[in-house]
Amino acid sequence: MKPVKIAMVSLTHGHTRKYYQTLRDNEKLDWVASCAADRCAKEVYDLYHTGVPCYLSIEEMFEKHPDIEAVVLASTNDRHLEEMRECARRGVHILSMKIPTFDLCEYDEMIRLVDEAGIVCQIELELHYNPVVHRLKELIASGTVGRILSMQATNITLSPVWAFPWQGVPEASYGRRVPLREGDARFRGGALCDHPHIFDLIRHLTGSEFESVYSVVAPNLRPELEVEDMILCNGTMKNGVTFLFDPSWSRMEERLTVPAPGWEVFPKRMQVDVTIIGEEGTIVCDCFGPNVYHNGAPNDRYTVQYTYFDEWIGLVDEFVNCIRNGGTPEINLKWHRKTIECMNACYESIRTGLPVKVEETGSSEE
């Protein structure tokens, strides 16, 4: 299969460093160009010595490389609609970061643009391709635990704000400045915006959609942030399955301008655990179980070797296959919209202090 000529846009997302490796190593991709959101992002990009030219505007990148077939939107959430318009106009396929937008009016425009242009738009939720999750899905499908009753999951990390400041800016992360609740100085746009994976996963595992959700926030571990960093969500699916999710930034970090060894402050920086309880038994799994040893100093650091790049192979395989053979990615805009609806409902529950019916949050103007 002919490699897809691909580029990366903006270089400001926390997953950008994963793409540096993925775009270089995957033989199904031909990484031909990048463009940076600003000179600071370009300077960080230059540290990695990719050998791939980097520009300061998406227009210049496309003009210099008219053969680009697809792009990775590694940009702030509030730039996605503008960039999707440009890609749709040029007929360029899109691999979008995990939050296309929280504004459902914008979301519907994205769907229209993609449909009218006839391009592939895949949402980057790498947990879907995780080997442990694949095994979990097999066990559920085989009836190992019987009918699913409940799911508990954590998606906890350090805060990326110190290397990627936009993730602490409500306008760039959530899309606008919306207070969490009356009397709270914080705004929507923090840890919840960073962790849609487990909300998507329960839909895959249960084959059901969200019924209602109740969410609470704790005082921030990092009081200087103006977005939430500690949040808990529970609720019910339409088929009766209950869930409890922790999508917090509950792992502390050293504040390095450029991500590098040193963020690994004990305990490990990322933990994704899933527990499935069924009528016939329980499955507990650690989706990111890296090899870790504690090296003691400085600052209580540890050394870690992650293996999660394995799942980016499956992600790229699906993306390339859809481009070359005219398919639709499983995590496409229309599918992912219901996950975004639930995450908006989580914020609405925090605002009201009450459980919220997910279908009642269909408007982006609540």
In short:
The protein has 366 residues and is of the alpha/beta class. Helices cover 31% and strands 22% of the residues.
Walk me through what this model shows:
With 366 residues, this protein is α/β, with parallel strands linked by helices. Helix content is 31%, strand content 22%. The protein folds into two domains: 4-126 and 314-331, NAD(P)-binding Rossmann-like Domain (Rossmann fold); 128-307 and 338-361, Dihydrodipicolinate Reductase, domain 2, CATH 3.30.360. It has helices at residues 16-25, 39-46, 58-64, 80-90, 104-117, 131-141, 170-173, 191-194, 197-206, 310-325, 333-352; strands at 4-10, 29-36, 54-55, 70-73, 93-96, 121-123, 148-157, 210-217, 231-237, 242-246, 270-278, 282-286, 291-294, 302-305, 356-357. The strands form three sheets. Strands 12-11-7-10-9-8-15 form a seven-stranded mixed β-sheet, with helices on one face. A six-stranded parallel β-sheet has the order 3-2-1-4-5-6, sandwiched between helices. α4 runs parallel beside α5 (104-117) and α5 packs antiparallel against α11.
